[in-house]
Amino acid sequence: MKQVEADVLIIGGGIAGLMAAEYLSSHKNVIVITKFSAEKSNSFLAQGGISAAIDKEDSWAEHFLDTLKAGHHHNDQEAVKQLVKEGKSVVRTLTEWGVSFDRHENGSFMLGKEGGHHRNRIVHAGGDQTGKKVIETLISRVRNKVKIVSHQYAVDLIIQNHKCIGVYGKDDKNQTTIFQAKTTILAGGGYAGIYGTTSNSYGSDGSVLGMAYRAGVELSDLEFVQFHPTLLSGRVPAGLITEAVRGQGGILVNSSGVSFMQDVHPLKDLAPRDIVSKRLFQEIHEYGEKVYLDISSIKGFRDKFPGVTMLCENADIDLNKGLIPVSPGAHFTMGGIVTDLSGKTSLRGLYAIGECANTGVHGANRLASNSLLEGAVFAKAAATSILSSEELDNQSLFLKRKKMKDEKEIQHKDLLVEEDIQRLMDKYAGIVRNKEELEMAAKTLELRSWKPDLIKQPLSVIKRFNMQTIAWLTVTSCLKREESRGSHYRKDFPTQKNDWDSKKITRSLWHDESIIAEKTAAGIFN
């Protein structure tokens, strides 16, 4: 079994992982491992941009209020302050590092407007290719300073003396490598890939959350899954039509050409994503309509949105007709690994940043273009914490892994195939949810143990196990929250309840497993 050592091990090659690597690389020996290449991360695919209160008429306080409102005040306010106050600094840093953000002739930033924002504050690059431009810049900066190991799937955390000291990884040939590190950072993205209709790149299966969960690390807010309203309809995988199109004047219309958002929310087509997605769901599934994004009023569409143009042309959509067929799909997950404001988790030596973390910044629904900002802000916070830490104790590691007493052999017959998990999540845990369907899904997804001996299994089985674990945790978290709030909508509990204010559903392996062992009713958790 191959063994590799580093000061800091980072799992994930999106904006959070690469920025943390850049901050740490001058002081630490850093290794980054990714499932595929960094060019296939969700950060690379991000079309919108980075939200920052840059305009002289804007302020971090207004950005703060927009973030809280979009998140239905389920946000951690201190985390949100940390996020929005760093906006200008993030843009300045990325500019200094080489990202060419779009500017007017006078040198000022072109600031776009997206859903939930009351001001133009979205900084973008290459029109709708911000993520691509940022990730390409970061890769070029860290390439010669950091070891990047692609096509490595992190399987399980290695824990010794109640401290994380690395991970077991597997490559595409099922060869196992021990990655040992004094500090491990999880930056592996979210879990929207457990749904069939999703904007996410292949591999967004929540594997780092599953790995953390099996190690006893706390997770929270898993019921909050954001559905983006404008995915390209009828395409698999679904392509994303950036919200910036609506910011430039795109309007949602039905089959008869009638717009339908004007009476729903004061921001109309630029209402927060949860509101727009629920309205599209109603139009499509209750009224039997098809929904289109009317772009006929946008001048120079192809120049402003080259990525969307290519996506539509590849799908044989004639943009000259001015209509793009759209429908909602799983896009971003607010839930994740519980952290403090520096990214520290409940396990010593382990940090989590980016979409896999639950810092509380997004609340029940993420504000548009706060995701790249979150990755950048908390990458810096984690790096600062690690560099200031005096915890440099050396750890020893046996090359031969011993099976823990609480680990069990996996029951293959209980595992669902990936497509069945995705279909089940689309059908029973999508935009509109209810108790009966969630209970049916939970029963189908439940396994005898959530902590099996995975390292000996082939990658195909490990991936299915991770997907099923996160799907079950999501469904049972949805069951517990008996209200509607933000991205979580229960048809049987259609209103937001005051007695659920500031309440989080925190998941712990030890508690969940004891409930299964006692055969207690599904969905009753701490």
UniProtKB/TrEMBL annotation:
Active site (catalytic residues): R273 (proton acceptor)
EC number(s) per entry: 1.4.3.16
Subcellular location: Cytoplasm
Alphabetical GO biological process terms: 'de novo' NAD+ biosynthetic process from L-aspartate
Keywords, sorted A to Z: FAD, Flavoprotein, Oxidoreductase, Pyridine nucleotide biosynthesis
Pathway assignment: Cofactor biosynthesis; NAD(+) biosynthesis; iminoaspartate from L-aspartate (oxidase route): step 1/1
Pfam families on file: FAD_binding_2 (PF00890), Succ_DH_flav_C (PF02910)
UniProt similarity note: Belongs to the FAD-dependent oxidoreductase 2 family. NadB subfamily.
Record's function text: Catalyzes the oxidation of L-aspartate to iminoaspartate.
The name this protein goes by in its record: L-aspartate oxidase
Organism classification: Bacteria, Bacillati, Bacillota, Bacilli, Bacillales
